C-alpha cells in the first residue's frame, strides 16, 4: 500500500484535533497508519486536561478499544499521540520554547484543520481565527527541518460568490486580500458590523469570506513550501469510519437535521430541487491523508476539492425525505413536534408559514404570561421565543446553500487516486462519492445525531433493509400543487417505463394458450382421458379449454397501473412503512437478466399476493405470474384484477386428474421456458400459527423440470422473507385455531374488511435471500453425493443419505403431498447402475432427492430472511409473564431478548430507543393487551372467549421467533424436567447429593432431546437426517459456551446441569405449550376403542373439546395448547410414528374393520373421483394394549411438562387418566 508505506517513520502535527474533522483525522491515523512515529496535536489551554477529556474520553475510540482492550489501547494511544499547549492566534502558534524545538526537529507533515466555523462570527474575529491562525501555523512550518508537506483544510465555498461548475482553482476576488485585511482590522467594533454586508458582497457569511482570503494570502506567501488546499463541501457524519454515522457536534447540516428531528425546524427557505453537496467526514479525512504523497517534497501548490455534486449529486428534497422519515420512525425523547421537512421557494410563503407556526403562538404565549403573571407561563413564553429565534437563525444561515447550486469538480483528486494509489489504498482511503447510498447515509447520519449528540441510549444502528419505505419513496421528488394532489396518479403513470428485460420477450396470452394446448404432454393426456372415460376427444378438448380459461393469467400493464395507484393509497392507510432490502432487489435484477427466476415468499397473509408485484412495479422489474388458489375466483371484480395483474389460478388439489395436471404443469413450465418470473408459495397455504410449514414439492418439481430436460440453461430460485408487525388476519386465525371453519373468500367479506383501513398495522419488512442457482445447486449436490455413491451398491436413496451423508435430506413421503411428484420425468424408478454417480438429469429418484433437498433449503432461507419484529418480542415476553409485567421490566426483557435473538443469528427489526419500540408495539397490540395498575397482560378474563383469542394471536407473533431457540429449548426442557422429577425425591438430601441428582449424563440427554425433536418434527421444519448426535452436541456446546448449562467431566463420565436457571427456564417455557398440546393429543387416543375407526375430523374435535376442558379445570397451563393447528399436527405425528393408521372413506364409524363389504361398487363419476376421500383413524395393535406402548409414550411425553401429572399406582392406565382427568370418561 502506498499511503501506509509513505507515512511510515514520519511524525505529524495536527491542529484542530478537538474539532469534528480533526478528531476523525486523528482516529484514522492511529487506526490505519500504525507505523507513524508520533502525532503532535496542538490544543489551546490546558493541553493535558483537554486531551484526556476531549480526545481520550471520546467515544470515537469505541471500536479500537473493543478490538484491542481498554488498557492496551490507552497505552498505545498515549504512546503515539502527544498533546502540546498552544494558541494559533499567537506568533509561533503560542508554543513553548521546548515544544517548538521538538516540533521543528521531529515533525515532517502538518495537517492544519483548526478554524472557526461560526458562519455569523464577527468579521475581525473570523480573520483572527481563520487567517492569522493559518499564517502562524505556516510560519512554524517554514522552520521545520524536515517538512515534506503542509495540508490546509479549507472549504469548497471559497468560490461560493459564483455558481455552476467550479474547477479546482484559487478563488477569484475583486479586491487585494492583504489590503482588505488591513482595512478590516483598523475598524472599530461598531463600524465592522455596519460595513460587513458590503464587504462580503456575494459571499454568504464571514466563514467563506475569510477562508477565500486565507487561500489567496497563503498562495502569495508560500515560497517553496509543498502546500495543498483540501476543500470539503458541507461536511456531514461519517460514511463508514470509525462507525457509520459518527458525529459528535451540532454544526452545519447536522444542526438542520437535528432540529428537524426534534421538530424545531419543519420548513426552510430554498429550492428543494437544488443539489445538496454533503460529504461524509471520513472521506475528508481520507483525502487529507491521500494527497500528501502527491505533493511531498515538491515545490508546488495543489487544490483538491472533496464533494459529491460531481460524482453523486443528491437533491435537498431527497435529503429532507430520508431525514424526516428516520425521525418519524425514531422519535427522540426531546422532540417537541412530529418531524417534517420541506422547502419554500417563495419568500412570502415562507414568511407567512413562519408567522403562523411561530409568530402567532409566540404572541399569544407572551400575552398570556403578561395577563396571568404566572411564572410557569412566563418561562414557557421565553422558551418559545428562544425556539423561534433558533428556527429563524438556522433557516437564515442555510438560505444561501439551499437557494443556490454548485457543482464542484473533483477531477484532481480522482487523478491522484487512479495514478498514485494502488487498489488497496483506494479501498481503505476511499473518497469516491459514487459509492454513497444516500438513503443509507442519511439514515446513519441521523442515527449518529440521535446516539452521540442527543445521547439517547438503547438506539440500535439502522439496517439497510429498514431504511427505505415504499409508501413515501415516490413522494420525495414531488413539487408543485398539482403534482402533490395527483402524486399517486403521476407515479402510477410514469413508473414502470424502463423495465429490466428478461432474456426472452414475453409472449401474448393467446400464443401461450396455443403452445400449452398443442403440447405433446397435453395432447397425450387428452387421448388418455378420452379412452378411460369413453368420450370423444372433442369433448375432452372442450373440457381442457375450460380448464385453461379458468387457470390462465392475462397480464395487462394498464390494469397494473390502476392497481398500483389503488395500492399506493391503501398502503398509506394501512401501514407506517413497507421496507425493502434493496441489495436483494439488485440481486434479483441480475438473476432475471440471466435466466428464469422463481419467487418463493413466506406466506402469512393475503397481502403476500400483492406486495411482491407492487415492489417489482416500483423497481422496474418484470412482474411475476402468481400462483393463486381458485378460492379467489369466487370474489367478483377482484378475480378480474388479479388475473390481469398476473395471477393464474389452481385447484387446491388435483391428484388423480391427469388432464388438469398435464395442462397446469405444461402452463407453468411454458412460463419458465419463456423466462418469465413465476411466484408461488412453497408452504402451500398461509401459516395460521406464525411458524414455517413443510415445503410442498409439486410446483418446485414443475419449475425444475425444464432445466433437467435441457430446455433452459438455468433457473434461479429466490426465497423472500415477508414479516409483519401486525397481520390483518390475526382475528380470523384465532377463530380457526379455536375450531371455527375457515371464512370463505367473497366480495361481501372484502367489503366488510374495509374497516381495517382505519387501523394501524405497523410496518412490513421484505428481505430477499440470495437467489439459488439450480444449475450450481445441482452441480454441488452431484459432487457431494457422487463421492459417496461410487463405492456403494444401489440402495434406496433414503438409506444412502441417512447412512453416509447426514446433511442430505432423504425423500420422505410423509412430508410431501400426494401427487407432488407425478410425471417427475420420463424415466421411471431407480435406474442407477452399481457404482454410478448421482444423476438428477436421468434418474428419477436422484432428481426427487434433489428437489426435496432444495425445498428444505428454500424453507431454511425463508426462516433466515424473515425479520423478527418488535411485536414478536413483546408478545413473547407478555406470554411468559401473562399475569402481568411492568413497563420498565417489559423494556428490560425485550432488550435482553433482542440480544439473544442476535446471538442465535436472527435478524431483528429493532431501531430507535427501546422504550419507544416497546410503546409502539403495545400500541399495535392494544386490542390484545390491557394495562391494569401499571401492569401489562393479555386482555380479557382468563376463561373468556376474548382472552383465549388474544392468547392465540399473541402466540402467532411469538411463534415467529421460536425456531431460533428450538435446540436450546429442547435441551432446557430435558434439564428442567429432570429437576422437577428429582425435586421431591431429593427433599432433605445433602447439597452434593442434590447437585449430582440434578445433572444428567450425556447419552441420556441426547436420547431425551432426540425424543423431543421427534415430537416437535411436525411443528418445526428440519431437513430429514439433520438431527444426528454430532449436530446435537454442537448445539449443546453452544449452550455451554453461552453459560446456560454446565458440563462436568469426570473421567469418561460427562454430565450436564443447569447453570443459568433464569434463562434456561425462560427458553424451556417457550416450548411447554407445544408439549402440553401433544400430551392432550396422546391422552385423547385412549378414548379410541381397539379395532374401532373414527373420522379424523371427529377425532380432532374430540381433542379440541378435551383440551378446552382440561384448560378450564386447570389441568393445562396454556390455552395455546388447545390450538386446532397444533392438535392437527399432533395427529400427523402419531400417524408418522405408526401409533395410528389412516384409512379411507370406505370405513364406517363404529363398525369393526374386520367386517367385509360384499356389495358391488359402482364406478365413480369424474366429479366423485376428484373429491378428496374422507380419512379415518385407527389405533395400531402395539398401541391398543391397556399397558402397551401408548402408555409408555404418554408417560414419557408427560414427564417434560412444566407441571408434572398426578401418578396413580394402578395397572389400568385408562382408569388412572380418568382419575386425573374425569372429563375423559365422557369421551
UniProtKB/TrEMBL annotation:
Species in which this protein is naturally found? Heterostelium pallidum (strain ATCC 26659 / Pp 5 / PN500)
Q: Does the keyword Nucleotidyltransferase apply?
A: no
Q: Which intervals hold domain Phospholipid/glycerol acyltransferase?
A: 597-725
> What is the annotated localization of this protein?
Endomembrane system
Query: Which keywords, in A-to-Z order, does the entry hold?
Result: Acyltransferase, Membrane, Transferase
A UniProt-annotated Pfam family: Sterile
Write down the superkingdom of origin.
Eukaryota
Record's protein name = Phospholipid/glycerol acyltransferase domain-containing protein
- From the UniProt record, give one GO term of the biological process aspect: fatty acid metabolic process
Q: Which family does it belong to?
A: Belongs to the GPAT/DAPAT family.
